């Protein structure tokens, strides 16, 4: 049964900073589908690209895996292709998310050898022998001062021809364009059933928690850390998904 996101539906008075707590984890799939543009399509593209670049015997990391939507799709894709020699590692620092992730993977009958979920900070985790690293809407929640260190660590942990896939909300440099894109985004939320109160309370909760980079800053980060091929594979107003190849 789909659980409907009502996290910001009642007046909260003082609005605490957004966290991925139990209340959020419980309704996360609905929240993501209604608040992230083309969420399902991006998941499909991430899965497709992961299957294309996966190397036999290597690891796939899903950093900030939330409820393991991506890990589950990639797992199923590999199994359907008859691949057996792979390890998917989902990492999230929210205990409630990890619980939801394990429930989803158990329902697929996925073995722990093939896909495991670890409770932890991906800034502290080792990345080793990877062909694919996924950061789907998670870099934006990382302290900007720590972004270079995590991208460098990912680069070092990837095999030759391995890829990093990143989706993020971006900030447009031009203020007119920025305002327009943000308006379009809030319109999308309205069309998806969110009220003005839900939209404004979540916006306040996300301030200083979700810190968007510009397209230039985000691209420069990937190239400065060593990635040779860096390109966008999906874009919708202020949301963009990137593929970065280690050559
Ligand atoms: N340092 C960190 N270490 C571990 N986890 C973290 C950290 N920082 C944030 N998280 C986790 O990153 C996730 C971000 S949601 C990802 C969606 C998913 N990728 C999806 O494709 O459905 C994005 C969104 O909600 O917009 C949350 O579960 C956090 O707990
Ligand atoms: O940027 C926003 O307004 C969002 O709602 C993005 C988002 C989506 C899902 C969980 C947390 C933030």
From TrEMBL:
KW ATP-binding (keyword) present: no
Gene Ontology biological process terms in this record: tRNA wobble uridine modification
Residue stretches making up the Methyltransferase domain: 56-170
EC number per UniProt: 2.1.3.-
GO MF term list: carboxyl- or carbamoyltransferase activity; S-adenosyl-L-methionine binding
Catalytic activity field: prephenate + S-adenosyl-L-methionine = carboxy-S-adenosyl-L-methionine + 3-phenylpyruvate + H2O
Entry-linked CDD domains: AdoMet_MTases
Keyword presence, Transcription regulation: no
Binding site for S-adenosyl-L-methionine: 39, 64-66, 92-93, 136, 203
Alphabetically ordered keywords of this record: S-adenosyl-L-methionine, Transferase
One Pfam family cited in the UniProt record for this chain: Methyltransf_31
PANTHER family: CARBOXY-S-ADENOSYL-L-METHIONINE SYNTHASE, TRANS-ACONITATE 2-METHYLTRANSFERASE-RELATED
Biological role: Catalyzes the conversion of S-adenosyl-L-methionine (SAM) to carboxy-S-adenosyl-L-methionine (Cx-SAM).
HAMAP family linked: Cx_SAM_synthase (MF_01589)
Protein family per UniProt: Belongs to the class I-like SAM-binding methyltransferase superfamily. Cx-SAM synthase family.
Protein name per UniProt: Carboxy-S-adenosyl-L-methionine synthase
Organism placement in taxonomy: Bacteria, Pseudomonadati, Spirochaetota, Spirochaetia, Spirochaetales
